[in-house]
Amino acid sequence: MKLKLHIWRQKNAATSGKMTSYEMDNVSPDMSFLEMLDVLNEKIIERGEEPVAFEHDCREGICGSCGMMINGMAHGPEKLTTTCQLHMRKFNDGDEITIEPWRAEAFPVIKDLVVDRSSFDRIIASGGYVNVNTGGVPDANAIPIGKKVADYAFNAAACIGCGACVAACPNASAMLFTSAKISHLGSLPQGQVERMDRVINMVSTMDNEGFGGCTNHLECEAACPKGISAEYIAQMNRDMMKATFTVR
Amino acid sequence: MQLNANIPDGPIAGKWDDHKAHVKLVNPANKRKFKVLVVGTGLAGASAAATLAELGYDVHVLTFHDSPRRAHSIAAQGGINAAKNYQNDGDSIYRLFYDTVKGGDFRAREANVYRLAQVSVNIIDQCVAQGVPFAREYGGLLDNRSFGGAQVSRTFYAAGQTGQQLLIGAYQALMRMVGAGKAKLWAREEMLDLVLVDGHAKGVISRNLVTGAITRHAADAVLLCTGGYGNVFFLSTNAKNSNVTATYRAYKKGAAFGNPCYTQIHPTCIPVSGDHQSKLTLMSESLRNDGRIWVPKTKGDTRKPSEIPENERDYYLERKYPSFGNLSPRDIASRAAKQVCDEGRGVGPGGLGVYLDFADAIKRLGANVVKQRYGNLFEMYERITGENPYEVPMRIYPAVHYTMGGLWVDYNLMSNIPGLHVLGEANFSDHGANRLGASALMQGLADGYFVIPYTLGHYFASFPKMNITTDHPEFVKAEEEVKGKLNRLLNIKGKRSVLSFHRELGKIMWDYCGMARTKEGLEKALELIPKLREEFWQNVTIPGSGEELNQNLEHAGRVADFLEFAELMCYDAHHRNESCGGHFREEYQTEDGEALRNDEEYSYVAAWEYTGVGNKPILHKENLEFNEVKLAVRSYK
Amino acid sequence: MASIRTYLQSTIMSKVIMALSGLAVIGFLLAHLAGNLLVFGGPEAINKYGQGLRDLGGLLWVLRGGIVVAFIAHIFTSIHLKQRNASARKVSYANTQPVNSTFASRTMLISGLSILIYLLFHLSHFTWGMVSTKSFNGSYILQDGRIVHDVYAMVVADFQNPIISIVYIVAVTLVMFHTTHAFSSAFQTLGINHPSYNGLIKKAGLGIAILFWIGYVSIPVAILGQFVK
After folding, report:
1. Is the ipTM reported for this complex over the cut 0.95?
2. pLDDT digit string (tens) for C64-75?
3. What share of chain A is helix, strand, coil (3-state, %, to 5)?
C-alpha cells in the first residue's frame, strides 16, 4: 500500500520543530508500524539525510519504550495496543498518517518523536515501592492474599510506564500512571504500612513535575495499552482525601 | 590466564552457607567509601544495585534506556522457578538443582547451580514482600504452573508478564534507593569501555545518548549486568537494543568469555512474515502446557489445519518424547520442529512453522479457562498475525532467545579480572548448554539479591583499596580510544546503512551458527564474517553527529562489536566437537537425531582469551566435575 | 510533611473542591427548580413559596451564603485548575482524535463561564431587579391577607419577552450539558467508582441533566405559549 506520512521533526530540545511529509509505497500489511518506520528511515539514510528518531526496544508491547501520537491517538487506532504491536493492516492504501511525539511539559521533546519521561521515575522514587530491604522477609505464603485482591492489584501493576495516558489526556495529567502504582501497592497487605504517606508523596511529586489535573475525560483509559481502569484514579482520590486529613 | 572457580570445599548442600560464613566483610561504616558501578538495570542489575545501596555502598547505576524499568528482563512472560514445594508434588532444592544440571546437558558448574536452587526460595519471599502480584489461588496462597524440563509445578507467575512484575519490583527497590540519595542513576548512558588499573576493574567510560558527552566513572568495583548477545543473529526475541558491547569490551580488556556458542533457540515464536521483519516475538512456553504441537504426516500437505483429520496429524513431540511430550525442554522441542520442517512438513508461508493447537484444550477446559490462562498471549498473536488462535491453530517456529554463554565468572561471580563481576545472562554460569524455562528470572534475581551482596564485600576486603580517580592515565587513554572509535565510525561516510550490515551478519550467523551447525558451515562463516566486518569499516554510513541523540551511531557501535564477537562464537562452536544443549553439531548426533555429547573430551567450560581483532582467541578450560549428578544421556522419552 | 493547606492545593484535592461545590450547586438547582415549577400552580402557590423563603430569615442567609461560597469555590478552583492544565501542555497536537471524552467534557470551562455570565444577568434580573423595574416591583395579596412580592407576575411578564426567554433557554441548555459531565465526574473525583454502580451514576447524571432542561425550559415555553398567563 501507499501512504503519506506527516512526521514531527525536531532537532533537539532547544530548537523548535515542524511537521515534515514523506511518501511511502510498498508498505506490507504484515509490517508493524515501527517496521514501516524502519523502512522509511532506510530510505532517508539512503538520501543522506537524518532518519526519524523514535524510541523502541522490546517490540512486543511490554517495555513501554515506544509511543507516538498516530492520527491524534496515543499508540494509534487499535485499542489495547502499543505502537510496536500496531500493524499496518489497520491502515488502508492511500491513508495519510500524522505522527507526533507525546506532548506534555513534563515530557520535554528530546528529538523528533523521542521525549524525556524521567518524571515518571521521579514519581516512583518518591514512594512507589514497599519499604523493605533485601532479606529478612517472611515466607511468601505467610501473607495470604485473596485472588480477587491479587488480580485487582495485578491489573494496576500491568502499567508499562509508556506515558500514553499523559499524551492522550487533554490536560497532560499523569493520574492514571500515578494511581496505578498507588492502587497496586495500596490494595495489597504489603503496601498498607505506608499507604497514606505514599499517596501524599507521589501526588505531590506528580504535581510538582508539572502534569495537569484530572478532569475525568477518561481519554487515558482509552489510550492505555494495558487497559488500566480509571477506577484506580478513584481509589487514589479516596486515599488522598483520607491522607489529607489524617497524615501526620 | 588463570581460571580458578574458587568453589568452596565440603558437601554441596553446605557450600554456600559455609562460604557465606567465611567470606570477608566490610564494616558498615566503611561501606559508603566503596563506590560500585552497576551497568544495566535488568533483574540482575536492578536487584544488585538496590541491595548494595541498602547495605550502604555508594552505588552508581548506568542504563542506556531512558528508565531502568525498560530493561529486557521485562519481556519474560512465563514465570520464575523456585523449589518451594508449595504444591506438595515432590519438589526440593535437590530436584531443582538436578533438573537444571540435566536441562543444561551437564555443562554447568554444579556448585553454582546448587546455590541457585537454594536461594530460589528466598527470591519468591523477597518479591512477595515487595508487592509483586504473583498469581494466587482462591484461598490466597501462591499458584504454580509447570514448565518445560520439569515434572513438578514449581513455576511462580504473574499472568503472562512475570518478567515485568519482577523487574518492576526490583526497579521500585532501586528507585527507592535513588529517591533516598543512596544510589545515583545515570539514565541514557551507555558503557563503551571498561577501565583497568593494575589489572583490576576500576571504572568505565560511558557516552550520554542525548548529549553525546563522554564520562569517566571511577569506582572500586564494576558489575556488568548487561544481558545476552542473541542479537548477533539480528532476528531474535531480544529487545532491539540488547547488545554484546559491554561484555565484549570487557573481553577485549582481558576477561575470559565462557561458552559463547551456547545459544538457546526457543521453540514457540511467531514465524517470520517478510523481509521487513525487525524482530521475532516469543509466545510463552507456558502455552505448551495446554497446546499440542503437530504437523501434517505427509509432505507438502497444503490443506487447512481444520481439514486435516486426526490420523493424518503427527503430534511429533508426544510421539517421540512420551513422558515429557509437549513440555520437552526448549532445545529438544526446537530441534524437533526444525527436523519436521526440513522434512518438508512445515506449515505456513515458506514451510517454516508448526502448529500449536488449542482445540483440545478448549474442548476440555472451555474457551473461558483457556482465555483466563492465555488470553493476553492469544491477543498478542492475533495482533501480529491477524489470525484468531481460538479458531485456527497458532503457527510457531523456533527463534534465538537466550544466550547461555557469557563472561566467565568464578563462584563469587567475579571474572578473571579482579573487581569485574558479571551477573545474570551476561555471565556464563548456571545454565550449562541449555537453560530451562523460568530459570533466567531466577538466576538474575539470585545473582543480584542474594549472591553479589555477600561476594562483593569479599573482594573489597581481600585487596587494598586503590582510590583511583578519573585523572588516572588509564582513564585518559580509555576515553581517547572511545572517542577515536566514535569518530572513525562517523567519518566512514560510506553507502550502506548500519541496519543492512546487521541483517547480513544475522543471516550468516543463523545459517551457519544457528540451530544446527557443521564444521564446514562454521568455517564458511569464519570466512564471511571478517569480509563483512571489513566492508562495514569502509562502507557504513551514519548520518548526524556524535554530539546529539544519534541512534544510528549507537547501533553502529553495537554492530561493530557483534562483527567481532560473531567470530568468537564461531570459533567456539567449531572447536566443540560434540552436540550438547543449544549447541547442535550435525556431525555429532545419535541415530534418531538426538544430541550426542562427548563427556570424555568436552566436559569443560571453554573460556576464551582475546588476542586481537581477527585473530583466533586462546582457549582455556575449566574442567567440570560432577559429583552429585551422574553424567547420563539426557532423555525425555 | 507539609501542611493540610498544601495538600488541599494539590490537583486531586482541588478537584474534590470542584466536585463538592458542584454537587452543592446541583442540589441548589434541584431545589430552585422545585420552587420555580410552582409557577404552574398559579400566583398564590409561587408567591406564598417566595414569601416562605423570606420568612426563613437568618437561615435563608445561611443558605444563600452557602451557595455563594460553593459558586465562588467552584469558579475560582476551575480557573486555577485550567491554568495548571493549560501550562501542562504548551505545544498542542496538530491532530487529536478524542475517544472517550465528550463534547460536554471538553467544553466545561466555556459552558461554565457562559453560565456564570448568564447567572449574573439572571440575578440582576430576578433578584436585584435591575433589568425591568416595573415588573419587579409588583405586589400580590396572599389569601391570608399578607402583601408580598409578586413573583408570578414578574416571571410571566418578563418571559413573555421572547429574547429573555430564548437567552434563558440557551443558558439552561448549557447547564444541561455541563451537568451531563459534571455529575458522574464528581463521583469519580470523590472516589466513588465501582463497576457495579457506575452505570447507575452515569444514568442518574444524564437523568438530572435532562430533568433540569425539561423542568427549567418548561416555564418560558409555557409562558410564551400562553399556557401560563
Report:
1. yes
2. 999 999 999 999
3. 40, 15, 45
